[in-house]
Amino acid sequence: MDALQRIEELAKPVVVRQKEVKRKHLGVLNEEIRMGEVILGQLMPIETRAKDQVTQNLKDLAEKRRHLAIELAEFKCVSLEPLTWRRPDGLPTLAVFSLRFEHMALWNRRGKRDDDIQTHMSFCQNPRSPWENCGGAPEGIRLCYADLVSHRIMRAPQYASDPDNVVSTGFVGVIPFAVKEKIRQYRWMFDDVYLIAEPKSWMVHIPNPDPLVVGWDGGGFWLIDAFDTTTIEEAMLAMSDVDTAPRLGS
Known about the structure:
Layout: H1 3-10, H2 19-42, H3 48-73, E1 76-78, E2 95-98, E3 103-110, E4 117-124, E5 135-136, H4 139-142, E6 164-170, H5 177-186, E7 192-197, E8 212-216, E9 221-226, H6 232-244
């Protein structure tokens, strides 16, 4: 059994009690948000304090709606613990990818003292300089990789003159259209959405197939979907099949 299959097996289903009551509550929240947005749109510049209060109320209602929607969607809860799994060589078993960047990078950066070294994590397009034009990882995810500060590769002799020792991997493949539609459907519920994949190699950008799509709610992962990556050629063929499929009424 590979690591991603283990994660799926360990994912905990959420038992939703009083489902109908909560669905009605969700409907009430939607209506309150709609009314609040109407009121906000009618306020004049002189009503600054009222605008601030309505804006805050809308944020509070949206947060309640988000958590209730996640619960009613019955996603499985995915532990962060698998991100701490390590291969025999000490490097991570799993990589996390942002949908906005191709690469995940880890690097050590020295502080003012030689013994002040910390492991940083970012999502980036250029793994040679992952601290430029990049996106940072939430603290909860980054800390799962903090032990790499002492890894022999991260502090290998050949990097001794470089204060930024980078280990990276990149996503290869195409996310199926059906999975993208599911991501669009549920994106609003989460702070962000990530892919979890098992790289065949670090520094060589070839993740294994069957990544997991997970939503991050600010404190943990929720399993949205799992899929087989496709090659660009397979994706083009699939699009061609859709384009040539008979249309209704034709």
